Amino acid sequence: DLRGAIEAYRAGLEFYPTSSGWLGLGLTQQNLGQVDQAERAYAKAVELEPRNAAAQRRYGLVLLATGRPEAAVRALGNAARLEPGDREIAAELAEAQAALQRNVGS
Question: 3-class SS at 95?
Answer without folding.
Answer: helix
